[in-house]
Specification:
The structure holds two protein chains of two kinds. Chain A is α+β, with helices and mostly antiparallel strands. Chain A is built from one helix and three strands; from the N terminus they run E-E-E-H. Chain A has a three-stranded antiparallel β-sheet with strand order 1-2-3, covered by helices on one side. In chain A, a hairpin with a 4-residue loop joins strand 1 and strand 2. The termini of chain A are far apart. Chain B starts with about 30 loop residues before the first strand and ends in a 7-residue tail after the last strand. In chain B, about 5% of the residues lie in helices and about 20% in strands. By secondary structure, chain B is mainly beta. The chains are: A alpha+beta, B mainly beta. Chains A and B meet through strand 1, strand 3 and helix 1 of A and strand 15 of B. Strand 3 of chain A pairs parallel with strand 15 of chain B.
Chain lengths: ~70, ~475
């Protein structure tokens, strides 16, 4: 499952890190600011994206296991 | 710069503009007011010019009157031999204080090419109590329909209280026909024409704050991300400097709103208006990203702020908090009286995005048994003019929802002919989006219950664009 991450804007002074994250064709983040700490530590950004992808996949699996019935 | 005064003297025994009018027949005072000329001459409109070169919220008549009842003139600084009157209405006012304008008017306000008028405040000129009244009376220019919700409907709980404040976007041009400015004689027979050859563009709506849901007493849910600000003409926002001073234009001001408490739906008093300080173009705070504690956000698990906006960029939404590992800084403490940060009281309406700046706002507080007629507003966008309501801010997310992005005047790199509303914030629990994005500003927001109006819109641009608001798109 390919994860495509695009960083549109990185502005440490203003705490801005705008990303788009696509996981296997699904938008996890679509031009969303995930923020960045004043020291510019990108490890936190990576951890956040990793966690967001994990949650997305978890929710997707839950939905597959519990489909809506019309 | 062109300055024209299209009146001719008819009675030399009278002073000021009254000398140009017949004493026996009520005629309209016909004036053309070049906004830039009055600014260069030192009329109050000059104080509307910001250090960035833009003007923010020009008012009529006050900004064109240097000294009431003065027959003197002011020199236009950059035009040799050109003057403007200190009081264009001298001799045509009431005899006692506050010396209201007391004659029919036929006034054209010219905004020349190169002049830019935007908005840089929220709910300073447009008071929450006024909008509350307009909303209740379903006035024209206050579209309450948004997405699948009709916020004016009684079936939408406490809708008026929730959305009044974010709708109080200040205008580029305020036409003030309150009873301390003009008399009945003026209201019942006047035409105001706005001719825009410059840039008259509303400021962008602010982004809503991230909210949170009450779980059980003392435990909040997971915070939502802030909304992005809408595109517009407003002062640059210093969003990320974590200022210590609440007087700075910053996220900090926006957080002040969380500390104000309204008594009820009637808590729309003048005294609380000033507490509502988010500025146009300000991104919404993520739920637990407080600006004044920058050292303790060194974790990946926070709700991020929405970003600010400018003339060419809409604000991006902020991401939600991911889980409860880091509880965040809660505000205010939720109790059973306030089970959601966004629902119970008007001052908790901050999760909703701010509306974009209006172009023209007309108000009159005259009270009559039946509505006055005879006031007309004509808005003309000349061939070089740019005129558009500020885009709405995105709504804040709640309960682990992302915020919504701010609205934009562009779509796919081209002019956006659709309404530039903000995107609602997400409420993760239901996957619903009830935290509304702000609406685009209006071309004409007419807010009075006792003056029936008529108006015309004319767009002289060759491309048929740039005369648009939530109330109309004029091609």
């Amino acid at each position: 499952m390919a994860i495509q991450t695009t960083i549109h804007k990185l502005d440490v002074n203003n705490g801005i890190c705008i990303v788009t994250v696509i996981d296997d064709g699904d938008y996890v983040y679509d031009y969303i600011n995930v923020g960045i700490t004043p020291d510019g530590n990108t490890a936190f950004v990576e951890e956040r994206i990793k966690n967001a992808v994990f949650e997305h996949r978890q929710q997707k699996q839950k939905n597959l296991n519990n489909p809506l019935i019309d | 710069m062109r300055i024209s005064v299209s009146i001719s003297p008819s009675d030399s025994s009278l002073s000021g503009a009254a000398a140009f009018l017949s004493g026996s027949v009520v005629q309209a005072l016909t004036l053309t007011l070049n906004a830039l000329a009055y600014s260069s001459a030192g009329s109050p409109i000059a104080s509307r010019k910001n250090s960035d070169g833009n003007y923010y919220t020009v008012t009529f008549p006050d900004d064109f009157v240097h000294t009431i009842n003065s027959e003197d003139t002011l020199d236009v600084s950059d035009q040799t031999g050109v003057t403007v009157p200190r009081d264009p209405f001298v001799g045509l006012r009431s005899e006692s204080n506050p010396y209201q304008i007391n004659t029919p008017l036929d006034v054209t306000i010219e905004i020349p090419q190169g002049m830019s008028i935007g908005t840089n405040s929220h709910s300073v000129h447009v008071k929450p109590r006024d909008v509350f009244s307009a909303w209740e009376n379903n006035h024209s220019g206050l579209s309450a329909q948004r997405d699948t919700y009709d916020y004016s409907s009684p079936s939408f709980p406490r809708s008026n209280e929730q959305h009044v404040r974010e709708a109080c976007a200040d205008p580029c041009i305020l036409i003030d026909f309150n009873t301390d400015k003009v008399t009945d004689s003026t209201i019942q027979n006047s035409t105001i024409t706005i001719e825009n050859s410059g840039n008259t563009l509303g400021g962008g709506g602010y982004g809503g704050m991230g909210g949170v849901r009450y779980v059980v007493k003392g435990i909040n849910g997971i915070g939502g991300g802030g909304g992005g600000a809408g595109m517009g003409l407003h002062q640059s926002i210093s969003s990320g400097n974590f200022p210590a001073s609440p007087t700075e234009y910053s996220y900090y001001q926006f957080s002040n709103v969380a500390t104000t408490v309204g008594d009820s739906g009637e808590g729309l008093s003048e005294t609380t208006d000033g507490n509502f300080l988010p500025l146009p173009g300000t991104g919404g705070l993520g739920y637990n990203w407080w600006p004044h504690t920058a050292t303790d956000i060194g974790v990946s698990n926070y709700a991020a702020n929405g970003t600010s906006s400018d003339m060419t960029t809409a604000g991006s939404a902020g991401a939600a908090q991911l889980n409860t590992t880091v509880p965040g800084r809660t505000y205010p403490p939720l109790s059973s009286d306030s089970t959601d940060f966004h629902q119970k009281k008007i001052d908790y309406s901050v999760t909703h995005g701010g509306w974009g700046g209006n172009i023209v706002y007309f108000r009159s507080n005259v009270f009559t048994a039946s509505a006055y007629t005879g006031t007309h507003i004509n808005i003309v966008n000349k061939s070089t003019g740019y005129m558009r309501g500020g885009a709405g801010g995105g709504g804040g997310g709640s309960d682990q929802g992302d915020g919504g992005a701010g609205g934009s005047w562009y779509s796919g790199g081209s002019y956006n002919t659709s309404a530039a509303h903000g995107v609602p914030g997400e409420y993760k629990t239901t996957l619903d989006q009830p935290y509304s994005g702000g609406l685009e500003g209006s071309l004409l927001f007419w807010n009075t219950s006792n003056v029936a109006f008529s108006n015309t819109f004319t767009n002289e641009r060759g491309d048929g664009n740039w005369m648009q608001g939530r109330d109309a798109r004029v091609t």
